[in-house]
Amino acid sequence: MTKIDEGFDPAAHLCARQRWFEDFAVGERYLLPSRTVTDADFAAFRTVSGDNHPIHYDAEYCRARGLPGLLAHGLQVVCFAAAGAGRFPHETSDSLVAFLEQSSKFLGPVVAGDTLYPALEIAELTPQRTTGVIVMTATIHNQRRELVMTGEHRYLVKKRP
């Protein structure tokens, strides 16, 4: 028979303490897990996106154009900078209202075998009456320390009730 532990509270089993808009500061960094891009990642994204351009799935097409391999789709690269891969969504479980906007600039190619190192950094805090907008700079470097993507995320977060 399983014993009930009255001292355990599932609601208190949190990955991070709850934060509200005023708890954040410009300059805070969120390092996201590094990941090596694989052929399986390419195949999965190709299936989800429906993109059928040969630059993403035809190695001979890429070689004929002097490319080092299949190029990752830009939207696939953006996915590596998803805040959901880190602790930010856990910290804003009760305060996050919306993911408002995302922008990105692609600065270099990403090919299978590259290891990507994504990070988010709070660049701006804009308070409103009951909420605020958190602007984060998104960056992704590869294993050669090259910056391959930069951009911004905007989140609407509640102020402390």
Automatic annotation (TrEMBL):
- InterPro entries, A to Z: HotDog_dom_sf, MaoC-like_dom, MCH/BMMD
Q: Name one Pfam family in it.
A: MaoC_dehydratas
Protein origin, superkingdom: Bacteria
Q: What is this protein called?
A: MaoC family dehydratase
Show where the MaoC-like domain sits: 26-131
